[in-house]
Amino acid sequence: MRFSRVALAASLQLPAALARGDEQRPLGPSLGAGGPFAAGAGGKKPNIVFVLTDDQDLHMQSLDYLPLIKKHLIDQGTLYKRHYCTTAICCPARVSLWTGKLAHNTNVTDVNPPYGGYPKFVSQGLNSAYLPLWLQEAGYDTYYTGKLFNAHTVENYNAPFPAGWNGSDFLLDPYTYMYLNASFQRNREAPVSYEGQHSVDVLAQKALGFLDEAARGDRPFFLGIAPVAPHSNVQASLLTNHTFDNPDDINKIVGAFTPPIPAERHKHLFADARVPRTPNFNPEAATGANWVRRLRRQSAENVAFNDHFYRQRLRTLQSVDELVAAVVDRLAERGLLDSTYVFYTTDNGYHIGQHRLQPGKECGFEEDINVPLIVRGPGVPRGEVAEVVTAHVDLAPTILSLAGGKSRADFDGEPIPLSREELDRAATGRRHHEHVTVEFWGFAASEGKLFRDDEARLVLNNNYKALRVIGSEYNLYYAVWCNNEHELYDLKTDPYQLDNLLHSTATPPATLLGVPLAKVLARLDALLLVLKSCKGATCVRPWQALHPAGDVQNLRDALSARFDAFYEQQQPKVRFDRCELGYILDAEGPQFEADGLVYRHGLRWSEWV
Fold it and tell me: What single-letter DSSP state applies at residue 166?
């Protein structure tokens, strides 16, 4: 059926009560300047296919259940095992991915207005400054089908239309997550309901249609394919006709979440599968900080339901597995496979039971931020597992570089090493970052069942700023919450993040990395101070912002004793002034380059005030 105007007072909206530029800079690695498909290198530029799933995990072994993706992508390309999203929730992650900018620079920090969603994307001016437009400028035809952003609805799909697409067929809220009642909106047409058909199967046909259309053209193309699997199913009927104007009504939003629904042909698969029983799965002792530390251990009944939830995710992903195989086969039939890069990733990760958490995301644990990234294409090593640290903000620079486009000064990331030469160079620690910025605002939601009356579906003080630093000698996660609790994990010795070294009940080690723990902590805090408010090149080379002389390139360099006074006595500490549901600058505490808080080693404080 076609929709007429539907009365949706606030489609997937939070209650009202809870209520940068074109300057160019040089490309980093050689992809754009001297890669095989760089401008002027001769021959047609490469095609690019980008598959973006929704809430897919890496740490619960979802890739082990996708044999076609293994055959066509992992075995024929490179798996980047240290790839991270920077904000572990759908819309902010996707906006960062398509703009190359961290959420504190896009100011899209939630899935719905006032702090996020498609309306926020538009109001921030990003509909005229994101990847498809830059690719068109580089000579590409661009196509997209599936989920673009949250709060992109049957009401606002044309206010305005998303810019930059030669062809599009978008999933729309409030039906985006209804696997058997999806609504798509093609080009400038009205939305169409596909009631009774499985969403991913509908999407597969649309993707193949766009692929055929692109192949008939004489220009290189970009095709984005964004299935909602394995996201929870969301019953839109429970959300309509609600205004959600008080905090109690928020539960109606999350209460509409149920396990994902697989296609009929997959519904009996993996009957014995269960969430991997890693050491951090439903642990006997509480872990983490803030509200996570207060979670109670899950009952046997709770665990059994969560295992069912996990199986439904695996079953629903089988349609994605088939979709990827169909796309690769169609590329081969068209003679395009050898000249096409295929990217496969997800917006954010997922947890089920780790740290006693109910199904969901929005945390800074590895399960939520360390996500799959696979790339196959010309010059990409086959069967490789890369250790290089990469992030979602690196993807737009990477794709634009492959397209021979001009880089941008406001990119918060840099092109990902794809060739053998680039990966080898990155492995030596040269010309690629070792850190990831992690940030979050707003609430954390439990998407599964609640088994006790004292459990909350939503936790509102889930603001934190964090970083990951990974080098040959260290593997660290450091976070500061909006209530000013701190977390520090040494993942070299504690890979499941069970021992928060900074919790009030912890007995921290006297030394870390061969120096007193306090020295490491001071460096991490200063690095986080830079990253939580960085812009552009500073986000890629934060140590240079602290050490303009260039004598510090990484954490190990910064640990030199000659910098002790600089880090331990001169630097302000990361803190929040209060918790907020969105990015409110005066709640964020000290900013690296605001109000005189600019600290550079070798310069007197009086020079900066």
Answer: S
- Structure tokens of 607? 């020079």
Name which of 367, 384, 363, 393 is nearest 313 in CA terms.
367
Burial class (CB in 10 A: 0-12, 13-18, 19+), 144: buried
Q: How far apart are alpha carbons 113 and 18 in whole angstroms?
A: 10
φ and ψ at residue 291, rounded to 5 degrees: -65, -25
Strands 167-171 and 181-186 turn out to be: antiparallel
**CB neighbourhood size of 449 (10 A):** 17
Q: Are 42 and 331 within 8 A, CB to CB?
A: no
Residue 453, φ and ψ in degrees, nearest 5: -65, -25
Alpha carbon of 94 to those of 97, 353, 391, 587: distances in Å? 5, 25, 12, 25
For the cut 80, the answer to whether the pLDDT of residue 166 exceeds it is yes
- Angstrom distance (rounded) from CA 495 to CA 200: 34
Catalytic residues: 90
List Cβ neighbours of 8 (8 Å cut-off, separation of 6 or more).
Answer: 153, 154, 155, 174, 240
- Three-state SS for 497-509 is CCCCCCCCCCCCC
Third-level CATH fold of 46-438: Alkaline Phosphatase, subunit A (3.40.720)
The helix (run of H) or strand (run of E) holding residue 539 is helix 537-540
Residues 530-546: pLDDT tens digits?
A: 999 999 999 999 999 99
Tokens, residue 462: 């889930």
| 3-state class (DSSP) for residue 149 | coil
Q: Are 97 and 126 in contact (CB under 8 A)?
A: no
| pLDDT confidence of residue 434 | 95
Number of residues assigned to the chain: 609
Average pLDDT score over residue span 484-496: 98
Structure tokens at 407: 């880089």
CA distance 491 to 579: 28
CB 174 within 8 A of CB 253: no
Residues in contact with 219: Cβ distance below 8 Å, sequence separation at least 6, in sequence order: 139, 140, 141
Q: Which amino acid is at 311?
A: R
